[in-house]
Each structure stands twice: as C-alpha cells, then as structure tokens.
TrEMBL record, chains A, B:
MF-aspect GO terms: DNA-binding transcription factor activity; transcription cis-regulatory region binding
Name recorded for this polypeptide: TetR family transcriptional regulator
Residue span, HTH tetR-type domain: 1-59
Taxonomic source organism: Nocardioides silvaticus
Keywords of this entry: DNA-binding
C-alpha cells in the first residue's frame, strides 16, 4: 500500500506538477482510503518527499544495473554521459524538479528536501567519478565531474519545455570528447 | 502603471513562486486598482508572461552594458563565463524558472512561454558566441557554446536550493580553462 501511494504521487507530480498534486488525488489514484493514507503520510509534504526518495532509490538501482552494462574502451565516456543525460531527462528528474522549485518558496518542504538532495548529489558524484575512471587527486578533475553533472541538469531543465533529444545528443557527443581529452589526455580515443 | 504591475509580478514570482502569485497580490503590491490591472492584463498568464518578458529585456540591456566592460586578453573567457553564471543565478532566472516549471503542466502558459524562450535562447547564444570570439564554422564549437549555456543553467538550478557560490566559482574557473584550450588552443593563456 505504501509503494502504491508513493508511485501515484510521483505520477501526479510528473503529470500535474506540485501544486496540482493533492492528497485526495493521490488516494484516489492509489485506490487507498483517506484514513489509511493519513496514517502513513500525515501531510502532503511527507508524501511528496517520501515519493521522490522512493523513486530516487529505485532509479539508483537501475543506474547501477545500467552501469554494469557500460562498454569499456574508447566508447565508455560517451556511454557514461548518455546514461547520465537520460537520467536527468526522465521522470525522476521531473518529479524532483517539481519538488525543488516548490521547496524554494516553502520552508518546511525545503527542510525535508535539502538533506535528500545532498545525499543524492554526493552519491551521483561518486558514481560518476568511478564510472569515468576520473582521478580526483589531479587538479581540476573534481570540478570537471561536477560541471558534467550541472550540464546534464541544465539539459534536463531545457528538455522539460520540449523534446530536445537531437540537440542534447550533439552536446553530449562534444562533452564526452572534451572529457576524454582532459581526463585521459585523449588516450582513450 | 504597466511597469509597476510587471515589477510587482516578478517580485512575487521570486518571493512566492508561481502558485503563490495571485492577481490580487500583484494589484495590492503595485498599488493599482483591480479594474486598471484587468484592463492591461486580463489573466494571470498575460501578466506573468509580460512580466518575465519585461525583466528579460531589462536584463538583456544590463548584460549588453556589462559585456562592453569585459576585459580583453587572457582574463576575457573567465569574465564572460562569470557574467553568464551571475545572470543564471539572479532573479530573472528564478522568475523564468517558476514560469518554465508551471508551463510544463499548463498548456495555455506553455503556448505563451515557448516562443519567448526560443527568442531568449537564440539571443543569449549569439551574444555568447560573440563575447567568446568563438568560430562556429569550426566543428564542435557550436555545441561547446551550447554546453556552456546548459552548464550555467544547471548551476542556476542548483543555486536555487542554497547558496552555491564557492562551488560555482571553482567549476566556472575550470570550465573557462577548458574553453580557452578548446576554442583558442590555449593561445589566450
């Protein structure tokens, strides 16, 4: 029942946005009584934060599985970048975006979202470093990995207003080249 | 009166978000009667789109003025990147972000926002090319300029959840270095 409520919440965040996601709509979509819902999640904020946490965890597992299938050799960097680009163009990103933007002007929500965001940020960064084989003891490498994640976040935001796939592909091609040259001295190419 | 209404709207978008910006609050803050406001802007959507257009134009003039003061020589790329980073960390970006996210799930708003977004995107791209002295006839250069703008957009989004200035500065330092090496073969350094 808990999982049904959380998945209904994520769907509604993606379809209706934060302000269009009401606890009544969630209980209707999940087919759960209002009483049972209030027992699990007393407030809308409890519900949306738990839903995005849940989705993030599920997606993190999917990312780990996708990472295990990445090629090695010259195509690897591009494949890593594509995996990240897809992640930030999917429903997890959209639901999280709704939460971030709502949290900007809602102190109680911000208090719940900010720690989640820090954990996710740290984990995604560590995974990216590992997948790229980046050596963060080298000056500037940490910042380049961060820039990569900020880039895919920016592309994700651009993508929410329209289908941006061809443009994103060209930019990620170019970024992968730059990363290879800078991180591996072009040795992988 | 029109300008007062538009500036009150932008302030409220930044302070309260899209759903917390009501036409009643705007007329109160601007000190304009409801009748006069409805005469200028019949709907909330008319008001918010006009407000962000107005702010974008004003900010574009400020960017042009800032661009005229940019240094030439080895510090130029870093200064251009800082100017863009600051732009995407300011109130215009925040107000536009509220509009983008609301437009994602509001077809009427999207119809008004999408053309504005295309014009702004094109103008910002052209300005960035000019300021960086980037030669877009070279393969990959166009994508590198686009990546720069998506990067500052991603940093802007990260910044809305907390003060991100020191991290942003280090990333922009690193990116300016990479751009100089790639666009100018390091000749500017």
């Amino acid at each position: 029942m808990r999982a049904r409520l959380l998945e209904a919440t994520v769907e509604l965040l993606v379809e209706n946005g934060f302000s269009g996601t009401t606890t009544t709509l969630v209980s209707e979509r999940a087919g759960v009584s209002r009483g049972a819902q209030l027992h699990h999640f007393p407030t809308k904020n409890d519900l949306v934060v738990a839903a995005v946490t849940h989705l993030t965890e599920r997606r993190h597992e999917e990312l780990q599985a996708a990472a295990a299938r990445l090629p090695t050799g010259p195509q690897r960097t591009r494949a890593v970048i594509q995996m990240l680009g897809d992640h930030f163009a999917g429903p997890v990103f959209t639901a999280a975006l709704e939460l971030w933007v709502a949290a900007r002007t809602d102190a109680a929500l911000l208090e719940a979202v900010a720690p989640l965001e820090r954990v996710v940020g740290r984990e995604t960064h560590a995974m990216t470093v590992r997948l790229l084989g980046a050596d963060e003891s080298q000056p500037g490498v940490r910042e380049l990995v961060q820039a990569t994640l900020d880039l895919v976040r920016g592309l994700g935001l651009a993508g929410t207003l329209g289908d941006d796939t061809p443009r994103r592909r060209r930019i990620l091609d170019r970024w992968a080249e730059t990363l290879d040259t800078t991180l591996h001295g072009g040795n992988r190419k």
